[in-house]
Write a structure and sequence with these properties.
The protein starts with a helix and ends in a 6-residue tail after the last helix. Helix content is 27%, strand content 25%. It folds into two domains: 3-66 and 174-348, Zn peptidases (Aminopeptidase, 3-Layer(aba) Sandwich), CATH 3.40.630.10; 68-159, Beta Barrel (Elongation Factor Tu (Ef-tu), domain 3). The protein is globular, with a radius of gyration of 21 Å. The protein contains nine helices and 17 strands. Bound molecules: zinc ion (ZN).
């Protein structure tokens, strides 16, 4: 499958943290034909193993989950109250279209309702509304009408708009953090179809990264890797008004090699190895400047006696909003870099 089509099906799939079933359902048939063993563990991580010439495991991780909401109360008049899951910016929630996923898997459209400016004081208009004061309107006029649609307390929801293909190789969509990492893993497995890797490659499509790197932790325990890479969609802040270190990465600048973030300081020889591999194959790359956030590498490198772990990220503008933008050439270059790393990672052992 071409990368854009893959991104489209992954971005459009519903997958709030803890409710990743639909994303796993997209991925499973894709990796089944590319791996020697595919399984889903107790937390819902999808694990695909491609056996290499040798037993030591190289773990490649991407998280399936996206930030979202969870219905915590149904008003008598049919409005849904919710709590947030993961790191939302409160300013962007109001007046967005949402998808609610009922227990039977059906998807229901809604909108986060707001009052028109006419009814707000100047002060109210100036500050973001806390999530507790917001509500989802699915066009149901009573709690009974909500129940009749199968929507209940405990159902997840997220802001959602359909994936768009833009000119010059750009795509816009929700959850590119980290469906783009999932897409990279699938394409790396596809690239390995015709050759047996030296190390055994275990791909973990992890759950619940956005609420504390949870799936990656247990995936690393069971896979017991000696080397690992977390593949992410990361902040590109190459936009007006942001300069220097706050830019983190630039869209179109190639995959970003992690140096350090709040969850890990990558061993310098791993950073250098990734740089050397990129340079020797003519793959553009950038360094992800030490600053914000954490990735699954933070959980993986602390597994058992410690794992040589790093990160490769695809720059995405506007992550943690329903409309992220990325350049597909950065994705293809990330696939090339990670595939090349798979071929050379064993040289870092011993
Ligand atoms: Zn992420």
């Amino acid at each position: 499958m071409d990368t854009v089509t893959l991104l489209e099906s992954l971005s459009n799939a519903f997958g709030v943290s803890g409710f990743e079933d639909d994303v796993r359902r997209v991925l499973h048939p894709l990796v089944a034909g590319l791996a020697d063993e595919v399984r889903t563990d107790a937390l819902g991580n999808l694990i695909a193993v491609r056996r290499g010439r040798t037993a030591p495991v190289l773990m490649l991780d991407a998280h399936m989950d996206e930030i979202g909401m969870i219905v915590n109360h149904v008003e008598d008049a049919g409005f849904l109250r919710f709590a947030t899951i993961g790191g939302w910016d409160a300013r962007i929630l109001p007046a967005q279209a949402v998808t609610v996923r009922a227990q039977d898997g059906t998807l229901h459209r809604g909108v986060i309702g707001t009052l028109p400016p006419h009814l707000l004081s100047t002060e109210e208009r100036a500050k973001p509304l806390p999530a507790e004061s917001l509500f989802i309107d699915i066009g149901a006029d009573s709690a009974a009408a909500v129940a009749a649609r199968g929507v209940r307390v405990g159902d997840p929801a997220t802001l959602a708009y359909p994936f768009e293909r833009w000119p010059d190789g750009h795509v816009l969509g929700k959850a590119l953090d980290d469906r783009v990492g999932c897409a990279v893993l699938v394409q790396v497995l596809a690239a390995l179809r015709s050759r047996t890797p030296e190390m055994t490659v275990a791909c973990a499509f992890a759950v619940s990264e956005e609420v504390g790197l949870r799936g990656a932790r247990t995936a690393a325990y069971q896979l017991d890797p000696v080397i690992a890479l977390a593949i992410e969609g990361t902040v590109a802040a190459d936009v007006p008004g942001v300069a220097g270190a706050r830019q983190v990465t630039r869209m179109g600048g190639g995959p970003a090699i992690s140096v350090a973030d709040r969850s890990i300081i990558v061993r310098p020889h791993l950073v250098r190895a990734l740089e050397r591999i990129a340079a020797s194959r003519g793959i553009p790359y950038q360094l992800k400047t030490p600053l914000y956030g954490g990735t699954d590498a933070g959980a993986i490198h602390l597994n058992r006696a410690g794992v040589l772990a790093g990160g490769v990220s695809v720059p995405c503008r506007y992550i943690h909003t329903p409309l992220s933008l990325l350049r597909t050439r950065d994705v293809e270059d990330a696939v090339r870099l990670v595939t090349a790393f798979v071929e050379e990672a064993h040289t870092l052992l011993g």
